[in-house]
Amino acid sequence: MTQTRVPTQDNPPTRVAVCPGSFDPITNGHVDVVRRALTMFDEVVVAVATNAAKAPLLSPQSRVDLAAGAVAGLPGARAELVPGLLADFLRQVGACAVVKGVRGASDVDAEVPMALVNRHLAGVETVFVAADQSLTHIASSIVKDVARHGGNIDDLVPAGVAAAVYEALSEDHL
Question: 151-165: per-residue pLDDT in tens?
Fold first, then answer.
């Protein structure tokens, strides 16, 4: 539950940003974007959403729990499930911005139309954060592919995430 505080001269309004994604699973790249967004905003909500174009490996609640664990050490960060339209969620949490990490031109091409729709529907601007160069090769789809083929993903994801991915993959093959 979001807590509202009354802004005063000594207690300015809280600037809340939302970092949306499917986070299937959350990666070290995602956490890096959240960490850097916290230098610009008082609070960052990792907004776990459903992408109708994707077949997720992990359940929505599992993705929220893993994201919450991944950002637990970052004061001002939390994870929540987006129950429907992102624009409605932005208003619900009082967001002043959406934060999206981008690894390259193809990410920008995919994100700009969504940024424009969110501005149109919710009046909220999107801030693009360039991925750390050492993390640009990390994507959730690549993490799942490496894990499916028996590769080690421990250094690509936050603690506890690899075990959840391997477990979900083993259940997927039952």
Answer: 999 999 999 999 999
Angle at 100 between CA 72 and CA 127, to 5 degrees: 110
The 10 Å Cβ neighbour count of residue 124 is: 19
With CA atoms as reference, report the closest residue to 47 among 22, 69, 30, 27: 22
Q: Is 135 helix (H, G, I), strand (E, B) or coil?
A: helix
Q: What is the token pair recorded at 38?
A: 């916290």
Pairing, β 43-48 against β 95-102:
unpaired
Type and span of the H or E element at 161: helix 161-172
Query: Which residues have a catalytic role annotated?
Result: 30, 54, 103, 140
pTM value is 0.89
pLDDT in tens, 116-140: 999 999 999 999 999 998 999 999 9
Beta bridge partners of 126: 98
Say how many residues make up the chain: 174
DSSP 8-state secondary structure symbol assigned to residue 112 = H
Q: Give the containing element (helix H, strand E) for 31.
A: helix 28-37
